[in-house]
Specification:
single chain; Jelly Rolls; Pectate Lyase C-like; 3 domains; eleven-stranded parallel beta sheet; PA14 domain-containing protein; PA14_dom
Length: 678
């Protein structure tokens, strides 16, 4: 029996008025452009020295132009189409031209001659934008300066937005730089200058500092496939990626066809190149289990699981399980992205296929060789991923209200007795690569916000990692973060808590979190409280790794439908010793627990692996619990895997589609060390 559940009560955090420098402005309305001679943008640091597989030549800057494009705005440049002409130029500058109605893109790499603070400037006729990446990876570019109207030739001080914030660059490091310019009528020109750490000004940026990139880093048309033989089992976790494969070859599409050899494991990895900029959807099928991972760049350490399934499908059967299909993912034309497939074959036929739907709606099944390139990185991917660490810049606590279209990146913030970052009534904000720590309050507090993304950040020694307090339009994404030792106490103590988050496009996925007993006092690791996704876009809690919980007598792993709430799916999570319970549906409609693995050893506070219960009058209806594997011991060392309250409607799949007491569940489901951020 379920011993006792305490009602979760939301905790309203009192915001303290704080001042902080507004970080990188990523977009601006036209009415915000005002003439001035002084820059109002804040300082920002671009010091990530991660390298990519892009090859470099002795050329300087690539200049692409699109003819017969009307209008004066940069947004009208058709960058997703083939340019009318392409040439190389020797500097980030194109002098006067009377040709009307065209768009232009300049792109290449700038190499910092010395370590220090640089300032960039742009001048153009008509509108122009200057983008600089944190590395040589174009996908990490951010807009640092722009003008929405014309300037005279090399007139860099007409508008405040023409000047970037101070940017720290590392000596010898290459940084991707891109200029977009739209010309309507009259004269046309564009120029970029920079101020070096010494105070010297180069106008335009000298050709000696510039290089251009080849279109691809490796031979296209194939991708790397590795095979391990005599590997028993049907689960992807049994693919021995930390060991050398028995064989390695290249294949000409993202697919392995029928193979009757039993007990094999496969990894297919390499790079996929997006043909156009826009929204892509991936899907995977196979026999037996498989996972599809995609990085935000060419860096394998930034890969995230985007689709998977735990059981077999027929050949190219992409719709058997909901988890086979990814969410919509925006990719940039010409950009390479690391992609990886893990596939485990037990007995019977063996196959795995990946397809994608490209912008415009066409589907390529499987992804063909002309989109692919073989893997060229480290032979020990597990080692390379775990060795990565982030560099942060110490910063004070940040509190914004009514702010939008900004990025907060690379900050280390100790909160003290207030949240490290507080946002109120904000939207279109990206918090990335930050360290939030040492606060008796939460790491990030979001009140009445929408379209907020928190990713690749590290939380430790805070009451709760991310607390989202009311969102009427959704778009709250907390993915690919790491958490260590949440301090609580109740009602705080979560890695992530959603409180009245409503609307589409919200996710808490592919995070990793650990609470060490005696060093933390957590409640639920992930709590979805009175929150509602939509039927077509449920709240996703997918692919998280969670270890540790207790000694709370009510806290545990992942809670859906807490005090009501609907349309949430918790899938493909792995939980080890998560606390009093593993996963739960505590009310609400159309909530689902799918394809998770849960193990809990006997401890003084442990109770049950999965439960469904209607609490405080919030009925649990139309639930689904299927595809799960559970082995969970209560405080008396009785194997108490599952419990269904008499006041709750029995979930679909409850009796037939789960493995209660699965013998292969143990603490070894998760690596002994899996937190890599510091």
């Amino acid at each position: 029996m379920l011993k006792r559940l305490r009602q979760r009560v939301r905790n309203v955090i009192v915001l303290t008025a704080l001042t902080a420098t507004i970080p990188f402005i990523s977009s601006c309305k036209k009415d915000e452009l005002t003439p001035t001679t002084d820059s109002t943008l804040s300082a920002n640091t671009l010091s990530d020295a991660t390298t990519t597989s892009l090859s470099l030549t002795s050329a300087n800057v690539t200049c692409e132009e699109w003819s017969n494009v009307s209008g004066n705005d940069v947004a009208q440049i058709p960058v997703s189409t083939t340019p009318t002409s392409t040439k190389s130029i020797s500097a980030f500058e194109v002098t006067s031209s009377s040709t009307a109605n065209f768009g232009r893109r300049l792109k290449g790499y700038v190499t910092a001659p010395t370590t220090g603070s640089y300032t960039f400037w742009i001048a153009a006729d008509d509108a122009a934008e200057l983008w600089v990446s944190t590395t040589s990876d174009a996908s990490k570019k951010v807009k640092v300066a722009y003008t929405l109207s014309y300037t005279n030739f090399r007139e860099f001080t007409k508008y405040s937005t023409q000047k970037s914030a101070a940017i720290t660059l590392q000596a010898g490091q290459k940084y991707y730089v891109e200029v977009l310019q739209k010309q309507g009528g009259g004269d046309s020109h564009v120029s970029v200058q920079w101020t070096l750490p010494s105070g010297a000004v180069e106008c335009p940026v000298a050709g000696s500092s510039l290089t251009t990139a080849s279109a691809t880093a490796t031979t296209t048309g194939k991708i790397t496939s590795e095979t391990w033989t005599n590997i028993s089992g049907n689960d992807v976790s049994q693919v021995p990626v930390s060991t050398t494969a028995n064989s390695s070859t290249t294949i000409t599409s993202l697919e392995l066809t029928n193979n009757t050899t039993a007990n094999q494991a496969h990894r297919i990895r390499g790079y996929v190149t997006a043909p156009t900029t826009g929204s892509y959807t991936f899907a995977i099928s196979g026999d037996d289990a498989a996972e599809l991972w995609l990085s935000t760049s060419t860096d394998p350490a930034k890969k995230v699981k985007i689709a998977s399934f735990l059981s077999w499908t027929n050949f190219r059967e992409f719709t058997k399980f909901a988890t086979q299909k990814s969410a919509a993912i925006t990719l940039q034309a010409g950009q390479q992205y690391y992609i990886e497939v893990l596939h485990k074959q037990g007995g019977g036929d063996g196959h795995v296929s990946v397809q994608w739907t490209v912008p415009g709606g066409a589907t390529e099944s499987p992804i063909p060789g002309n989109r692919l390139s073989p893997y060229t990185g480290s032979t020990n991917l597990a080692a390379s991923a775990s060795s990565t660490s982030s560099a942060y810049t110490a910063a004070g606590v940040i509190s914004y209200e009514n702010v939008h279209d900004i990025t907060i990146s690379g900050k280390a913030i100790a909160g003290g007795n207030v949240p490290c970052i507080s946002l109120k009534n904000c939207y279109n904000v990206h918090i990335t690569n930050c360290k939030l720590y040492n606060s008796s309050e939460v790491g990030i507090y979001l009140l009445n916000c929408k379209n907020i993304t928190v990713d690749y950040s590290y939380f430790t020694n805070v009451s709760t990692g991310v607390y989202v307090d009311h969102s009427t339009e959704g778009g709250i994404v907390v993915n690919n973060n790491q958490f260590l030792n949440m301090k609580g106490p109740f009602p705080r103590g979560q890695f992530v808590q959603f409180n009245n988050v409503n609307g589409p496009n919200s996710s808490v996925s592919y995070n990793k979190g650990e609470n060490v007993l005696g060093q933390s006092y957590p409640e639920d690791a992930i709590s979805i409280y009175q929150s509602n996704g939509t039927t077509s876009s449920p709240i996703k809690v997918a692919g998280n790794w969670i270890r540790g919980g207790g000694p709370s007598q009510s806290g545990g792993g992942i809670m859906l439908g807490d005090m009501g709430g609907s349309n949430a799916i918790a899938s493909d999570n792995i939980l080890v010793n998560p606390g009093q319970y593993g996963m739960a549906i505590a009310g609400g409609n159309n909530n689902q627990i799918l394809n998770n693995k849960i193990y809990g050893k006997q401890q003084s506070f442990t109770n049950v692996g999965i439960y469904v219960n209607s609490i405080s009058g919030y009925n649990a209806t139309n639930s689904t619990v299927k595809g799960n594997k559970v082995r969970f011991y209560n405080a008396t060392n009785y194997q108490n895997n599952v419990w269904l309250s008499s006041n709750a409607q029995k979930p679909a799949g409850w009796d037939t589609d789960n493995v209660w007491g699965s013998s292969d569940m143990s603490e070894s489901m998760l690596p002994s060390t899996f937190l890599t951020y510091k």
